[in-house]
Amino acid sequence: MRSTLHTMFAHAPVAAFFDLDKTIIATSSAFAFGKEFFKGGMITRQEAWEISLSKAQYMLVGQSSEKMDTTRDTLAQMVAGWEVEDIQRITRETLREVVAPAIYAEARELIAAHKNAGHHVIIISASARILVEPIAQELGVDTVVATEMAVKDGRLTGEVTRYLKGGAKAEAVRQFAAEHDFDLTNSYAYSDSATDIPMLELVGNPVAVNPDRALKKHALANGWQARTFKNPEPLFQMPNAREVGIGAGVIAGVTALAVAGVFIARAVGGKGSDDKRHSA
């Protein structure tokens, strides 16, 4: 009888859902391994350059919802035919050099604190699972909910079977919580982007991390906690001219264009433009 009562009144497990890009890492997981894939012969110089430029633009001004969809389609086409084992090998071998230095120390500490409290930590991301999983392993996180891509005969087909952006990410949280009996009213969620407001609204403890303007405004209006992660500083790095076989003058010129794009976007788009920037 005592055991039955204990089971009936025991607290449901608590979850902590973490967005990835600009929340756990000060970079873009979707673009992080571009140089390494080029070195491995999986993409061309032109594709490596386009990935680096997209990463620079993302880190400087973010991405609109439409740009996220365009990036998804472009990357899906690019990876069609890639062997899953090759991707896993390259990400595993280069993770410590490419991504680990970009992990926020504050995020590591927070994840450890949740685990010590007995909470179930989940990384939930619009980036592809195959790229998110090695980062999760580096952090000691066992559960990943992310964008899924179809695989046939050990190769990616280029088809995106599940895309976790915006409302779809919130629905994934709701479904995951139902399947594992998590108590969302006592659970936590962390994100930097207004696109994740639907996910943040599902939990009793939403936290805005390095929030964009729209999320900062929403968090303030709703009494949500906001946190700033500073270590390391968010950085982007354009490719070395020798690494991708492009002239140094071109590198410098396009870097200048990327930086100029920040000021153009802010001057032309104003507040409304800033409010539409998203992350994965």
Keywords:
HAD-like_sf, Rossmann fold, alpha/beta, hydrolase activity, disordered N terminus, metal-binding
How does the helix and strand content classify structurally? alpha/beta
CATH H-level name of one domain... which superfamily?
HAD superfamily/HAD-like
Shape: globular
CATH architecture of one domain, by name, is 3-Layer(aba) Sandwich
Main beta sheet strand tally, sense and closure: 7 strands, mixed
Strands, count: 7
**So what's the CATH class of one domain?**
Alpha Beta
User: Taking all residues together, what is the mean pLDDT?
Assistant: 78
Percent helix: 40-55%
- From the 3D structure, determine the CATH topology of one domain: Rossmann fold
Number of separate helices: 12
Distance between the termini: 48 Å
Spans of at least 5 consecutive residues with low confidence: 1-10, 234-277
Determine Rg (CA atoms, Å): 20 Å
Q: Quote the beta fraction.
A: 15-25%
SSE run: HEHHHHHEHEEHEHEHEHH
Organism: Corynebacterium ureicelerivorans
Pfam families: HAD
GO molecular function: hydrolase activity; metal ion binding
Family: Belongs to the HAD-like hydrolase superfamily. SerB family.
